[in-house]
Amino acid sequence: MLVDHRAKLISISVPKTGSTSIHHALKRALGAKNEVKSKLAPVYHLNAEDIRKIIGPQTFDSYFSFGVTRNPFDRMVSLYHDFHDQRGVIKADTFEDFILNRFDEAWSQQLHFLPQSFFLHAASGQVTSKAYRFEDGLENILANIVDRLGLENVAIGHARKSERNKWQDYYSNTKTADVVRKVYASDFEAFNYATEVQ
User: Fold this and answer.
1) What are the pLDDT digits (tens) for 33-74?
2) Cellular component GO terms, alphabetically (predicted)?
3) From CA 16, how far away is CA 128, in angstroms rounded?
4) E strands in 44-139
5) For the stretch 134-143, what's the b/e string if a residue is b when 16 or more beta carbons lie within 10 angstroms of its beta carbon?
6) CB pairs under 8 A, 24+ apart, for 151-156?
7) Is 109 in contact with 44 (CB distance < 8 Å)?
8) pLDDT, mean of residues 131-154
């Protein structure tokens, strides 16, 4: 999460949606010093509802708050590669093996694997001012935020990028898509993503 009271900006960090890249770019542009210092995932990935409670509904609602969403099929592939290739936590050698044989309740409740609606929604619906889509391009998302805040043009890098095939290639077994549809049903509905692999 990134909170800047001068810019009246709140950025919600939804795991594996490019939010870290956007945070780095915005921090450079804003000279942000009031971001929570903890590198603990539960703090960095506080959801919008909890941040609203912490800073107060009136303050939260008067700021521009946003998060980025990503096609749940694509996001799950990215999560697999992050936790398999980079973190070494997932021991399954293939995406299919992980999804069909090892993606149990414990994994589905792990913070990074929670639905995107957990981060941006409350029981009443979307909490943030805006939910951008990863598919529109991080550069375009950042350009929109920079324009909204009246900042100078800001370049974006890409943090924590993984090397992999197109996400569609990972769903040759239709049962893997069935699991993702079930686990992220709220995301498909809330953010209007197609439930078929396209």
Assistant:
1) 545 555 555 677 899 999 999 999 999 999 999 999 999 999
2) membrane
3) 18
4) 64-69, 121-122, 125-126, 130-133
5) beeebeebbe
6) 151/29, 151/30, 152/29, 154/25, 154/26, 154/28, 154/29, 155/25, 156/21, 156/22, 156/24, 156/25
7) no
8) 90
Q: Give, rounded to a whole angstrom, the gap between the first and last alpha carbons of the chain.
A: 31
Q: What is the DSSP letter of 153?
A: P
Domain range annotation of the chain: 2-190
Beta-strand ranges (E) seen in the chain are 2-4, 9-11, 64-69, 121-122, 125-126, 130-133
**What's 45's DSSP letter?**
T
DSSP helix/strand/coil, 66: strand
Q: Which tokens is 103 given? A: 């993606």
Residue closest to 48 by CA, chosen among 110, 114, 129, 112: 129
2-190 has which fold? Rossmann fold (3.40.50)
Dist CA 148 CA 150 (whole Å): 6
In which element (H, E) is residue 83 found?
none
Residue 1 pLDDT class (50, 70, 90 cuts): confident
pTM for the model: 0.89
